[in-house]
Amino acid sequence: MSKDLAKLFLELKEELKAELENFKDAVERNVRSEERSLRTELGEMKASLNFISKGLDDAHRRLQVTLCENKQLKKENESLRTTVFTLEKDLVESQASLLKSEQYTRNRNLEIKGIEQTENEDLKQLLEKIGEKLEEPITESDVDISHRVPTKDDGKTNIVVQFQRREKRDKVLQMARKKRLTTTLLGLPTDFPVYINEHLCPTMKKILGRAVARKREHCWKFVWTRDGSVFARRTETSRIVAITCENDLNKICADISV
After folding, report:
1. For residue 29, with 0-12 CB atoms within 10 Å meaning exposed, 13-18 middle and 19 or more buried, which class applies?
2. Mean pLDDT for each 10-residue chunk of the chain (258 residues)?
3. Which UniProt keywords apply (predicted)?
4. Which of 1, 162, 189, 224 has the fewest CB atoms nearer than 10 Å to its CB?
């Protein structure tokens, strides 16, 4: 009986050993399979991470290039803005200088408005008559040249007189501002007011016209010219405003502090 039990026990032991070996082999196979699977997944994850990392590096590099280009563009833009500002300033100064020079060539001139042109007109005699009425004689030797110039009104012309000396022109202008002339006083068959003013260049005439319009619009009292420049004044006691260019017209406004 003892031998049978020993044999049975030995057989059972061999069976258990075989089962254990089989179990061990199965576990090892599963572990190796899982390991291969994990290695595959880890490899794929690593590849993905490398791809993402490369993409981030490329994006960062492009961002740096863009930032660098943007910085350079800002620098160039600022340089261009400075250049444009300088050019605009130079242009304004050049225009002002040109305007001043253009007006300077007229500093011995007067423009007479309101006298209709007649046949066989003698401007020499007409100027002598004007000087007589102004009590500031105008002789032939005082005048360099006189002639008619067209105006915006069809068929109407003004008289431009260039004096030999500016001092003489100023004296005649001073008297013309004190005494009001008419064509009747000059012995002409009509009865119209005669205006004697400084001879302004086209640009200054335009500025004067717009200044007068703004004076009316904003209820200012005075706009006048002196030495080829335009001036304005809101009231008798307010400060005098010089109008030397188009932008200065904005000074004629409704601001009560002016």
Report:
1. exposed
2. 73 82 83 84 86 89 92 93 93 89 96 93 96 97 96 86 98 96 94 96 95 95 95 95 91 70
3. Coiled coil
4. 1
